[in-house]
Design a protein that fits this description.
mainly alpha, Endonuclease Iii, domain 2, Endonuclease III, domain 1, binds iron/sulfur cluster
């Protein structure tokens, strides 16, 4: 019996053998490492131990002032927002008072915050909508919140979580970074990360997860130089480029 050898060009053989294998390998390689369930539980156990009752750093006195503070916080620091809102909220802590104050005065009060002109417009427009459609009360459901001017999914999640005690997670830049670096909830978009977090975080920790992750990202797992050498979850974290000494972190 004569075995007939089938000649294939190098191109064909790549597409028929190495091609699919390579593609599958590359698909496998792209899948980010994810923390195991017991590591996730341990991570939050430590966060809770260190800070049992985490709070937002945005100053507010009611759901309305929280909503305004979160709207103003886009591309601004909490400290910067607090500085501007202290006086603003003394003058207007309800939608009705905000409307009475007017756009010019709001703009003047928040002029130290980035994008203040547009934000002043939104503050007035959303106050108007709250008065006209919701009797001056901040609604407790996502769709109604997201329909307000200047309010997106992230803002709605903060309000639902902080003002109304719902286990929502608002994925900001800090949470996005920490979730990806640690392997807690890797994702390419904030919404992917939000879904991954909701699936990964044990129910007991869901209510506070948002605050713990923001605070961790803001003060320890910083964007440019994460302070891994003093990080309470360093042994659990899957990040490959940890800074293991203060000196290394400063380089
Ligand atoms: S070990 Fe480093 S990268 Fe990992 S969570 Fe801590 S600070 Fe962030």
């Amino acid at each position: 019996m004569v075995l007939k050898r089938v000649k294939t060009s190098s191109k064909e053989s790549l597409s028929q053998t190495a091609g699919p294998a390579k593609a599958a390998k590359s698909r496998r390689a792209k899948k980010p490492a994810t923390l195991a369930g017991d590591a996730v539980a341990e991570l939050f156990r430590r966060f809770e131990l260190a800070n049992p009752e985490p709070r937002t750093e945005l100053e507010h006195s009611n759901p309305f002032t929280l909503l305004i503070a979160v709207v103003l916080s886009a591309q601004a620091t909490d400290a910067g927002v607090n500085k501007a809102t202290r006086r603003l909220f003394e003058r207007a802590d309800t939608p009705e008072k905000m409307l009475a104050l007017g756009e010019d005065a709001v703009r003047e009060e928040i002029k130290t915050i980035g994008l203040y002109r547009n934000k002043a417009k939104n503050v007035i427009a959303l106050s108007q909508q709250l008065v006209e459609k919701h009797g001056g009360v901040v609604p407790q459901d996502r769709a109604a919140l997201e329909a307000l001017p200047g309010v997106g999914r992230k803002t709605a999640n903060v309000v639902l979580n902080v003002a109304f005690g719902q286990p929502a997670i608002a994925v900001d830049t800090h949470i996005f970074r920490v979730s990806n670096r640690t392997g807690l909830a890797p994702g390419k978009t904030p919404y992917d990360v939000e879904k991954a977090l909701l699936a990964a975080v044990p129910p007991h920790y869901l209510m506070n997860a948002h605050h713990w992750l923001i605070l961790h990202g803001r003060y320890v797992c910083k964007a440019r130089k994460p302070e891994c050498w003093r990080c309470a979850i360093a042994d659990l974290c899957l990040y490959q480029q940890k800074s293991l000494s203060p000196t290394a972190a400063q380089e």
